[in-house]
Design goal:
Layout: H1 3-12, H2 19-33, E1 34-39, E2 42-47, H3 52-71
Antiparallel strand pairs: 1-2
């Protein structure tokens, strides 16, 4: 396994961080391997990775952040 795969797997296992840390983590991952587009009131997210654990982590972070936004 490569070093970058090891790091991505480690990042994907991080849990229980405060909400601001989760936002920072998501935006950092999107900055590295994705993009965010705004068109009027529509938001688009494109994320590319070969690491399944990292893809699951991005989805998990999106769910956490968006669900909190609806409740808060």
């Amino acid at each position: 396994m490569s070093f970058s795969t090891d790091v991505k797997n480690e990042v994907a296992r991080i849990e229980g961080e405060p909400q601001n840390c989760e936002k920072a983590e998501l935006f950092g991952l999107l900055r590295i391997s994705g993009s965010v587009s705004l068109r009027g009131k529509n938001l688009g997210i494109h994320f590319t990775t070969e690491n399944a654990a990292l893809a699951r982590r991005v989805l998990q972070l999106l769910k956490i952040i968006l669900s909190c936004r609806q409740r808060c």
